[in-house]
Amino acid sequence: MDIDDNKPIVSFENVGLRYGLGPEVLQDVTFSLAPGSFHFLVGESGAGKSSLLKLIYLALKPSRGLISLFGRDIATTPRRELPAMRRRVGVVFQEFRLLNHLSAFDNVALPLRVAGAKKSDIQKHVVELLSWVGLKDHLDARPPTLSGGQQQRVSIARAVIARPRVLLADEPTGNIDDRMGLRLMHLFEELNKLGTTVVIATHNSRLVERMGHPKMLLDEGWLEIVGGRAPGESQAPAHKKEFSETVLADTFSDVDDDAPGAPPDFEKLI
Amino acid sequence: MFTRRSDLPLDKDALSRFLPWLIAFMVFLAVLALAGMLVLNSTAERWDQGVSGTLTIQIIPAANPEDDNGRLQKVLAILNRTPEIDHYETLSDDKLLRLLEPWLGAQAGTHDLPLPRLIDVELKADSKLDGETLSRRLAAEVPGASVDDHRVWLSRLVRLIQTVQGLASMVLVFIAFATVGTVVFTTRTGLAIHRSAIEVLHLIGAQDSYVAGQFSSRALILGLKGGIIGLLLAGPTLFAIGHLARQIESSLLPTITLEPAHWAALGALPLVVALIAMMTARLTVLKTLSRML
Question: DSSP alpha helices (H): ranges in A96-213?
Answer without folding.
Answer: 104-114, 119-132, 148-160, 178-193, 205-211
